[in-house]
Every structure is written in structure tokens, then in C-alpha cells.
Amino acid sequence: MLDIFALEATVKNPTTLSVLYSVCLSFLLSCVIAFTYKKTFQGLSYSRSFLQAMILSSLVTALAMQAIGDNVARGMGMMGALAIIRFRSSLKDPRDMIFIFSTLSIGMACGVYSYQIAVIGAFAFSATAFAIQSVPFSKESHFDGLLKFNMESNDTDKNKLQKILKDECKYFALVTLREVAQGTRLDYAYQIKLNKGQDKAEFIDHLREIETIKGLSLLLQESTVEI
User: Fold this and answer.
1) Is the overall model pTM greater than 0.70, yes or no?
2) Which range of residues forms the domain containing residue 131?
3) Would the CA dihedral through 82, 87, 90, 93 be positive or negative?
């Protein structure tokens, strides 16, 4: 029978069995993290290459940690090698960075034969990610979308606009305001959140009642849409 705790004591002189076990465990646990990322992803489509990168990075980290072991000279050499390599891929979502870091941590734990830490950490991380996904504050957005239009610069239309926004929007904030057509028209951009139950098409129809309004568009910032 395979004694896992005996494998944990072979950091200095790893055997073939311990190396294989570490690589296989890092692969399985990183697959768990990748599965969690896929199921909790809120965008329109996830990157398959990113999922593969998470799994492969865990294996690479495990192998690197096994190669270094307790040898300080190897560690310094690894630092020098990493200093030469420049990673230019940028992660736009901080959440992606956390998932990459989690797989790196799992690979590191497996690489130093801390299997209990790797297993408990992987499943604790996944459970927390699923729990956060169901929390209300993670789904609620302060604004529904971006409203853009331009209209004539007169007090009558401005008053109509303010009345519609106050009556039908829970929140609204002016993002940009600039003059166009030599100052005769104003170009607006608002971030808005409609009242609960307010129909978006009806809201647009009410805005169209302002005769001088043109270029009316509402860009919705839904949780499933990638901008």
C-alpha cells in the first residue's frame, strides 16, 4: 500500500515513485481548479488556452520545485532563468490572476511533497469560489448600462431629460458632457440603473419623446456580456 506520509519525507532524495505521485496529484488538483473556474465564470466565453495554462503551470511548478529541492544554488539558478524569461501576457481580470496563482501554489505544494496542504487547499479554494458565486453582492451591479445621446442645448429639453431620469432610474451618473455642432447641441453619456421592473424598451421610448434627441443608444452591462 502506498504510504503518502512516507513520500512527504523524501524531499532531499526523491524517488521515481514520489516524483510521479507529485506530478499526478498536481495535475488532478489543477483540473479541479480549472473545473471550478469554468463553472464559476461569468463572462460570455472562457478561454480554453487559459484553462490549459492553469493545469500546465501547476505541473511546471511541481517539477521546478522538485528539481530545486533543498539546493540553494539550484534555487538561485532558477531565479536567474525566470529573470531572463519575460512574460508579456496580461490578465485583464484580477480573478484570473488569483486562479493562476492558486494552481501555482498547488504545484509548489506538490513539488515539496506537502500533499495534505495541496489537497486541502485545492478543495477549500474551489468550495470558496462556488460559495462566493452564490452570494448576492457578487451578482449585483450598481449600474445597468451606459446611455449615450445628443440633443439641443435648451432648458426645455434638459428639464424633460432630468424628469425621465429621476422617474425611471434608481441611479444615474453623468459620465461625459461635451458640446457639438458649434455649441448648439450637447453630447451626453450617462451610467444608469433602472428602477426594479422598469422595461428598458419603454425607457428608450420615453426618451425618444424629446424631439431634439438623436444618436440614442443604451449599452447594457450584463454579467454574461464581455465588453
Assistant:
1) no
2) 4-138
3) negative
